[in-house]
Design brief:
single chain, two-stranded antiparallel sheet, alpha/beta, 36% helix, 7 helices, Rossmann fold, 204 residues
Amino acid sequence: MSLSEDTLANLASRIQLKKATILLVEPTAQGMDVLSQILMGFGANHFLRASSFEEAQKVVADSPVDLIICEATLQPEESDGYDFVDWLRRSKLQPNAFAPVIVITSHTNRRNVGRARDCGAHFVVTKPLAPAVLLDRIIWIAQTNRPFVSCTAYVGPERRFQNLGPPDGNGRRADDLSAEIGVATDPNMSQDEIDNLMQPRKVS
């Protein structure tokens, strides 16, 4: 769906990004320009930039940030955006370990969306970026106070759908999925499918 500039401006007025410090983690100059232009259209004007896992680590160690938008695929043969988010969540850097993170990627198969969810990202937004979709996710994060969970298996925003209690017997429920991850064969997911997997839902 294509929204008019007036509609986008009205949406952007619901949040104040002028004073926000936003870290953009993007390996290409073209991608960085696209991200910057979209966010400036929302009123943002203070950006920190990193093109690799190591650069992003240095930025969050030195400066507080209010929002992180991270490309999933960074430098070839090096740690990727999912690794960075996982490292950040476990870093105990204050306050950046709790900063909201949106992962952007053109490879949105179920395995990658699952990686984003499990590393502690708030949302995944598919590329090519639609400004209205990105803005909507930023607004959702700003208006929703999701508590953080910290345990051995996961550190990040609350993502449970329901409280089933501790499993009986051998430590796993009969209907739990296998812990084994096979080779990715699924096609890319749509933005609606991604949102359905990433957002927690109340269970009656």
